[in-house]
């Protein structure tokens, strides 16, 4: 959905120009043959603080943190493991890559995104899912529980 990308770009630009006043992440969940790719984009300083008090973002600590705060559950209620496939950083942003294997595809998948909400009460997490010629955008704040993709 163009709106979610536009919003994330506006948030990133505002943060760079104004000293990073907003706390947000953007996650894309994309259905691919045999599973799904999951990409999390976050401000590096916020993510490092959430993972372990601001120290460098090592792969193991990042993977453990994201798996504990970004929860995917299939239609039958089974949690889906997120396999960490890497990270990269550019300027103040970090991209984290994972794969998942929902047996029935993304339709009906339950998603809960609590990334950084324990650290920032104003945290906003966007999740965009692309599957079966659809694009769905979900918005999560600190008080939100799981949502289901139609």
Cα radius of gyration in angstroms: 15 Å
Shape: globular
| Count of distinct strands | 9
Q: Please describe the biggest sheet, giving its number of strands, its sense, and whether it closes into a barrel.
A: 6 strands, mixed
User: In angstroms, what separates the terminal alpha carbons?
Assistant: 15 Å
Mean pLDDT: 88
Task: Summarize the structure in words.
This protein is an alpha+beta fold. The protein is 24% helix and 40% strand. It has three helices and nine strands. The protein has helices spanning 2-17, 44-52, 59-69, and strands spanning 24-32, 35-43, 70-73, 83-90, 93-100, 110-113, 124-131, 134-141, 147-148. The strands form two sheets. A six-stranded mixed β-sheet has the order 4-5-2-1-7-8, sandwiched between helices. The chain has a three-stranded antiparallel β-sheet with strand order 3-6-9. Strand 7 and strand 8 form a beta hairpin. The longest helix has 16 residues, at 2-17. The chain is globular and about 40 Å long. The model is unreliable at 12-18 (pLDDT under 50).
What attributes does this structure have?
alpha+beta, 9 strands, six-stranded mixed sheet, globular, 150 residues
Short summary:
By secondary structure, the chain is an alpha+beta fold. The chain has three helices and nine strands.
What are the SSEs and their pairings?
Layout: H1 2-17, E1 24-32, E2 35-43, H2 44-52, H3 59-69, E3 70-73, E4 83-90, E5 93-100, E6 110-113, E7 124-131, E8 134-141, E9 147-148
Parallel strand pairs: 1-7
Antiparallel strand pairs: 1-2, 2-5, 3-6, 4-5, 6-9, 7-8
């Amino acid at each position: 959905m163009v709106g979610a990308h536009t919003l994330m770009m506006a948030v990133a630009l505002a943060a760079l120009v104004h000293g990073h006043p907003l706390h947000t992440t953007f996650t894309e969940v994309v259905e691919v043959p045999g599973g799904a790719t999951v990409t999390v984009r976050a401000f590096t300083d916020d993510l490092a603080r959430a993972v372990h008090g601001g120290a460098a973002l090592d792969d193991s600590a990042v993977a453990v943190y994201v798996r504990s705060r970004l929860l995917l559950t299939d239609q039958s209620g089974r949690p889906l493991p997120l396999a960490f496939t890497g990270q990269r950083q550019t300027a103040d942003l970090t991209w984290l890559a994972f794969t998942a294997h929902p047996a029935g595809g993304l339709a009906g998948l339950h998603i809960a995104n609590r990334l950084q909400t324990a650290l920032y009460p104003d945290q906003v997490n966007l999740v965009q899912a692309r599957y079966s010629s659809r694009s769905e955008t979900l918005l999560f704040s600190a008080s939100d529980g799981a949502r289901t993709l139609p």
